[in-house]
Amino acid sequence: MNMYYVRYSLQSIALTFLFFIQTNYCAVVISSLKIPLGPTFFNMATGALSCGATESGLGEQSLMRSPSAGAQLLPAAPREVTLNTIANSVNPLFDQEITHLSGMITPDSFGRPGVERILAVTAQKPSALVMIDMAANQTGTFLRSIDALCDATGKPSAGIVALEGTQGLQNGVFAAVKPEKGLFGEQGSGIALVSFGSVEMERHKKKSTEWHFNQIPLGHTPKLISAQPIDVTTKAAAIGNHLAHVGQTVALHWNGTLQRLFVGLDVTAGNEQSDGACALLVGKMVTHTCSESETAPSYTHQSLDLEPCITHTAVVNTSSTIIATRGAGSRVTIHKITSFKTSTDLWYVVVVGGCADGQMTQQTVTALPLNVDGQQIGTIAAIEQEPETFFGPKENPTFRGRAMRKKTETAEQASLNNNRCVQVGAGPLLAGPITTIFAEHDAIFAVVGGEQPDAGVYHSQALFDGKGIIKGWTAWRQVYQSDDAYLQAAFYDNLGGSFTLLSRSQNPDERAILKKTVWGSGDPKRHAGLVSFLRDTYTKDTTGIRAHTDIHVGMPGFAHQSCMVVGGYQAMTIAIMAERDEMGVVRPILSDALKKDAACLVHYSGGTVASLGTIEAITSAATDTQAWLFAGGSGGLAVYADADGAGWDPCLPIERADLLKKIFIPFGSYTFVRRLVHDGDYLYVLTDKSLDRIDLTRSCFKPNNLHIEKTTLAERAQFSLLHQFGCFTDVIVSDKIAFLATSRGLYRTGDHRDIRFAHSSAEVAWTAVELGGDEYAIVHLDAASTTGLAIDVARYGGGNLYVIQGYPGRNDGTIKRFSVGDVAATSINEQIITIVPD
């Protein structure tokens, strides 16, 4: 395993913990403005944010800019600027309403993010394009502009409807433009390209550098300044006969690494049943050599060659291929586009949209693998192919990359809308229409804006198979809930691990609110009291917090509430973090209820809790009729229940008054409890020397009538490699299979066995898993699954297992990732766990 992956895995796991904390950490107000802001451009490399005003008459506040994550929004549209090299010119953005923002980012000679150039369009001049040069070595404000971009016929466009700046070695901006008269999609509309660069000139024997910012010819006629046509006759989008309609929805996304432009459209097929439409196109710049005659000098002409991302022959019905459709009058729409490279070095394009009418296309996110072979770069890759791995020459055989090389050409090779591998979030994001989408490492973030009750930021993480291909996605999980009236946009700063959030409230003095999430004592409106209490209670001198369980709404025993349970030295705390309201919406608990002795916080110390020693493991567990909490530590194991050992009704909310009536009941003769796992009707108890399975349906926790139905499934003495000094360190159980971590390797349930029904270690038939590399002790296991729960890593199509090994004496460690198959409907075999080729 190469070090790149070790480093990346550490980032991934940091993000995994971050997702829990995100809902709890503080979103501080950076700027609160009286001006309304709308279009935005976020520079992910630097954290800089630019925002355009949605009203005119605001002077230099027409454009506001925050130069880095956490910095205040400041006016960025002064009245006088240097425009097209003419000093003291009137700024075309001053006092204007801005409708579109984008940006160009040019790397420096070392490949690091370099100069940022902001691109803007105003409502007063909808076809004009303005560029603000943010070069650091300049004093003053330097702008360049084009009065009107041309449409596909070479005439001035009626307006720009979408804007996308390039990021990479080429400087340019793509713009979707209307025809001279009419709407986008009608004859004359298209994609325009504006180039920005320098030319070395020599005049009067003196050399100088001249910069240009101008539209270049892209249409069918060389030397004619025009756009690449997009209308009902566009061959790349029309399957069979011409399209019946091209709508107003346009999405542009530039991938600087692949040097490809992705174009998303709203298209309707023709009137024949064999007609169809493709809504996702990929474009590449092609240079042609032209000559007006055999004797005339030749010249070059560039064109934007558009082709469908999926071959038309692979589209056979109205909806299955996601980005294309076939059938009379069928429609497909792409609203948003982004792309990302996985940690396994494969490219994917992510789209919001699909083959349906109505709002659901704005809530459906799909990730499709990309082919990166030669002339086919940017097309959708065929499924069921083995990615190729590239290495350097024999004298330096270093890893160079991985890629898919076969594009989708037939229906059998197409990714379908019911394929688990393409469904980001494991299905539509039901919270509402998606306003922003972006990728970060192996995760997709989606922003649900507006006044939706569940407005906020949502996250889904990719799951990989043994080839390194995405096989599924975790279900959507909210990582930030908006507490403002209207969430407009959100962005992730990967340098600081924080979100930048733009929203507005109903207060006329707060028409624009810029926030940033920060680590600290928490938001006074939410969890500051809880953070303070935990910090003062679980101090460093008492080893701090040693056990933590995040119980989401819908987990066993918690149908209506979300809880956080923490444990440490002779103490445990239960905090109710959120609960469903009468409308079924999960609302966070405010700070007054999360202070010591408040309505939603219960703390225990002394008595039975003290006898548990340092609490290392906590879990909730439930049967059909009862629910409990279990806690284990160095001194023993206890159940949190009523005085008679009964649990609570898992279908009803839990009140603090009910919690105060419950007690800790010790049971068993356990010491050094390492992990507690609840799966089905069983509680699995791992200590340093044994693994037990407790049948909750046949056990009684009544203090004067204790009966524990226990089966021992593993003992240290039965593992020859452990000897007297080895130990068990962690366990994950999912359906039939268990993964047992030790100080000398990883073991799994044997082939054709079932951990749920085994009566002994021999029946489990523990089988060693080949880890490869350094044989350090395993210090922790983690898992990613569709539901987000470790117990489902071998259900719902399977997930990923993370094995974390460490050697404190060398200050060294490794992280290895495995693909786990679905055992719910099949038996365990040797292919059930395979290492991901990182």
| Mass-distribution shape | globular
Major sheet attributes: 7 strands, antiparallel
Low-confidence stretches: 1-24
Q: What structural class do you assign from the helix and strand content?
A: mainly beta
- Individual helix count: 5
Percent helix range: under 10%
Give the N-to-C terminal Cα separation: 6 Å
Strand content: 35-45%
Radius of gyration (Å): 30 Å
Total beta strands: 57
Summary tags:
single chain, seven-stranded antiparallel β-sheet, six-stranded mixed β-sheet, 838 residues, 5 helices, mainly beta
Helix-strand layout with pairing:
Elements: H1 3-22, E1 26-33, E2 37-43, E3 48-53, E4 63-66, E5 74-75, E6 80-83, E7 86-90, E8 98-107, E9 113-122, E10 129-133, E11 142-146, E12 160-165, E13 172-177, E14 190-203, E15 206-215, E16 228-229, E17 238-239, E18 245-255, E19 260-268, E20 276-278, E21 280-290, E22 299-308, E23 324-326, E24 331-341, E25 347-354, E26 365-369, E27 388-391, E28 399-403, E29 434-440, E30 443-448, E31 456-464, E32 470-473, E33 477-481, E34 486-493, E35 498-504, E36 512-518, H2 528-537, E37 547-551, E38 561-568, E39 571-580, E40 586-588, E41 601-605, H3 607-611, E42 615-622, E43 627-633, E44 636-641, H4 656-661, E45 663-666, E46 673-679, E47 682-687, E48 690-695, E49 710-715, E50 728-734, E51 737-742, E52 745-748, H5 761-764, E53 767-769, E54 777-784, E55 799-807, E56 812-820, E57 833-835
Parallel strand pairs: 6-11
Antiparallel strand pairs: 1-36, 2-3, 3-4, 4-5, 6-7, 8-9, 9-10, 10-11, 12-13, 13-14, 14-15, 14-16, 17-20, 18-19, 19-21, 19-24, 20-23, 21-22, 24-25, 25-26, 27-28, 29-30, 30-31, 31-32, 31-33, 34-35, 35-36, 37-38, 38-39, 39-40, 39-41, 42-43, 43-44, 44-45, 46-47, 47-48, 48-49, 50-51, 51-52, 52-53, ...
